[in-house]
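Readers of this paper often ask what the protein records in our data store actually look like. Such a record has a labelled line for the sequence and another for the backbone structure tokens. The tokens are whole numbers drawn from a learned vocabulary of local backbone shapes. We quote a single record here, exactly as it is kept in our systems:
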Amino acid sequence: MRPTARLEIHHFIDQLPLSRYQLLVAILCALVLFMDGFDAQAMGFVAPALIDYLHIARASLGPVFSSGLVGIMIGALIFGPLADRFGRKPVLVFCTVLFGACSLLTATATSLPSLLVYRLITGFGLGGAMPNAVALTSEFMPRRLRATAVTLMFVGFSIGAAVGGFAAAGLIARFGWQSVFVTGGIVPCAIAVLLIALLPESIRFLLVKGGEDQKIAQSLRRIAPGTSPDLARSLLLEERPAREFVVKELFRAGRTSMTLLIWVIFFMSLLDLYFLNAWLPTVIHDAGIVIEQAIILTALFQVGGAVGSLIMGRLLDRLLSFRVLAGAYLSAGIFVICIGTAGKSVAWLALAIFAAGCGVIGGQSGANALTAEFYPTPMRSTGVGWALGIGRVGSIIGPLLGGALLSFEHQTRRVFWAAAIPVLIASAAGLLASRVQFSAARESR
């Protein structure tokens, strides 16, 4: 393949079939998010065992849940902009090692203060890994498969959280709660070795950086064998480099309204997601269901999330609109209410939890894909990272709010009525974003 003219990188990628090399990038990023999901949800699965081990009230674990989420928020806000400056790969590798090592430390905790510190630092790595995995996957995919690829990659998070639930039930019974964090520490460190050896840097980032023709040529040959080495010098990126302070770019060039609406969606979505992840096992157990079965029922929330993410990816590739997102969150609100009306019915709980996971986690996967598509390359990690960072404020409030609501006796049904409100607000924000999106597209014609 000999270049005869300047060629924009996305046109080059879009015109080719999906290669094994691009699939490898998505799989590696999915592995990171698999363990991200495992570690992020680990506290929810071990909470009942920790309450017995430390002899504490269940509400006392609220700050521990939130300390990890504070770390995730800080990690997303810091490591997104760092990746736009220094590259997706080095930041992703560092974050994976960080949350793996700190998960191992969590297994040594013997008090609430030590748990708070270890989960805070673990959160730094968890928060920094996700936006960079999303950005890197998005930048290697052709447009026709981009949303599907990002949501498929994000399914790794849901599967990791679900596997964590099934694994935790057996691990805790046989080896104690510490074994969950040992597993969540060793595996990410092994994945980091694979990332160093196999994961490439984003071609789009290398074009923005400049002076990396050799690395670009290597990736191009892996995507399309037989590509001329001269093609790297003929590629261009029709996106201006970001200015010195990248976050300001999120509010320039008519992006202010969409940025704020995206932040509302992420805030409300993650508030609901983390409230449910943190307290579902405990609430179900309190309803009279044995803890092993309560953990497995909660894992269905993540299984539903994986199914919902797959559906969202295909829908968004065909109709790249926030209106699809609004529909997902509307359905989520309905089924969150149903969880509160299920009582001790295992079958009804299973159905309601699975369906709620489809809407809440599937919606969040779709929000990740739409956000990565909305922001240009020089600010993509920052845009996704800051959306996730703002969303983490909601995720911090979620477990604390759940603990406060659950401290009132005989209020379980009303707790889930309240839990439906955030996703309904996210649905409304999605509808508004679709109108802004449509208006911008009409004005550009």
Notes: Confidence is low (pLDDT under 50) at residues 1-5. Residues 7-443 form a domain with the Growth Hormone; Chain: A; fold (CATH 1.20.1250.20). The beta strands are 7-8, 235-236.
